[in-house]
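ok trying again, last paste got cut off:
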Amino acid sequence: AAPPAAPLAAPGAAPGAAPQLELKDGTLDWGLKESFRRYVTGIAGGTIEATDGAAQAEGNGPFTFANGTGTYDPATHNVTTDFDGTVRFTSTAHGFDIKLADVKLVTEGTAGAIEADVTLNGATQDDIELASIDLAGIRPETANGSMVFRDIPAKLTADGAKAFNGMYAEGTELDKATLAVAYSTPSPSPTPTPTPTPTPTPSVTPPTEPPTGEPTPSPTTTASETPPASVDGAIVDGNLDWGVKESFRSYVTGPIANGKVELGDGAKQSGAAYRFPEGTGSFDADARTLSASFGGTVRFLGHEEAGAYVLDLKLGGLRVEVADGKGTLVADVAAKDRETHEVATYEDLSFATLDLPDGELAAVDGVVTLSAVPATLTADGTKAFGGMYPAGTDLDKLTLAVSLDDNANLPDGTGGTDGAPGGTGGTGGTSGGTGGSGSVGGSGTAGGGTVGGSTALAST
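nice, full thing came through this time. structure:
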């Protein structure tokens, strides 16, 4: 068969994208269809041969395709694995000779396919999508750098039905498949001992931005001074709605990481995103500056092994800074390296760059609103994910609304409850908990080179 076309590459991935992970020592246990095997060796009076690295279990059992190798793309969570082995079904009496070779398993999100080169009575078709597979309800078993996905449902595709000369119809249920893979991660980025960005006392100006005139008023400003008319004053309340990254949430709660999302300190689910409440800070319409801090934390947990989570990443202390027409999302981050299990704590990390809309930054009826603002990961922000996503990766858009008046009405959100989309936990603690230092506290996992450092069959 022709070499596989790189289905794992992220569309439009930049040259600096996170490296793919190598998969090795894989096996695929799959019997195609038990009733077909019985038919071949029974009524058809035929034979079944497993060669070239494939083996058949005793008693006309299923097949094992061995020596699986492949790649996993951290940016998309797509996997492809190629296996050794050939299986041949022949019957002179019933006039068929069917051979399967070059078996592959390819996934995209929670869906996927088993592909093979199929030779029917001497005519070969390469890379036939023989069976569709459904990983939505599959939970992996993880141990010592390997993962096992048992009993993956499989159905015959239209092309698969043709390959079998119409013996079975499209959609016919086939034997369930079991995939086992080992993985190796690239060396982590050279940031084993993080040097957190210096944390000025509640500064409202990002340390990476030069001063642009008078600083935003801080609590030390003399209250008796009459501010200029252009200064709109303190933020008294507000909400930030943001989901971090949809594909990352799907990965965490999907069949690979098999994890959950916990919200704490007042953060709640808001639609498909999270709502961070209790906005405080200041706004200056004339200077077009905004500094808005929000309460709440979000914690991503996954890849539970021996009672502890390998993936454990926590974000809090979210703050939006706007100055000189530029926007930045700042966060406190706690992350634990997958290899060393040591906590890396970053305070006031410049997490994302915000693409602000054109026009004046202004209050309407005492409320300043930024809606669906595009956000991209910064170079510093990549530290939170251990290099899983490169700088410039698109994150979820964020929406912000802050009020400058106790009587102003903030826009209604979609409401929400403790927990998170797809999550299995609320705000309570879990094994493998955080309990570290820094304003976020706790330990997280961004995995050396990839969050959780493991292969994933989840949508990202």
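cool. The two ends are 29 Å apart (CA to CA). The longest strand covers residues 308-323.
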